[in-house]
Specification:
This protein is an alpha+beta fold. 50% of the residues lie in helices and 23% in strands. The protein contains two helices and four strands; from the N terminus they run H-E-E-E-E-H. The strands form two sheets. Strands 1-2 form a two-stranded antiparallel ribbon. The longest helix is centred in the first third of the chain and has 33 residues. The chain is rod-shaped, with a radius of gyration of 23 Å. It starts with a helix and ends with a helix. The model has no long low-confidence stretch (mean pLDDT 84). The protein binds zinc ion.
Length: 78
Amino acid sequence: MISTQVIDEFFAWAPLTVLVVILVVVYVLTRGEKQFSPPIGKTYSCARCARRGVREHMVPVNVEGAVVWYCGRCAQTH
Ligand SMILES: [Zn+2]
C-alpha cells in the first residue's frame, strides 16, 4: 500500500519536476542570449503595433506636437 502511494506521488510530481527543469534550462538559455540583444531600457515600443526595437530601427513620427516611435514597417505605411 505504501509503495503504491509513493509511486503514485512520484508520477504526480514527475511532470512538475520535468517542467521546472525545462523552465530553468530555457531561463538560462534566454538569459545568455539577452547579452547579445539590447537591454529593455534602450528599446522603444512601436506606437502602432507595440513591437519593440532598438532606437536605430525605430522611426520618430511627430503626432500633434508629440514624438512617437514607429517601427520601420509601420512608418512606411504611416
Ligand atoms: Zn509597428
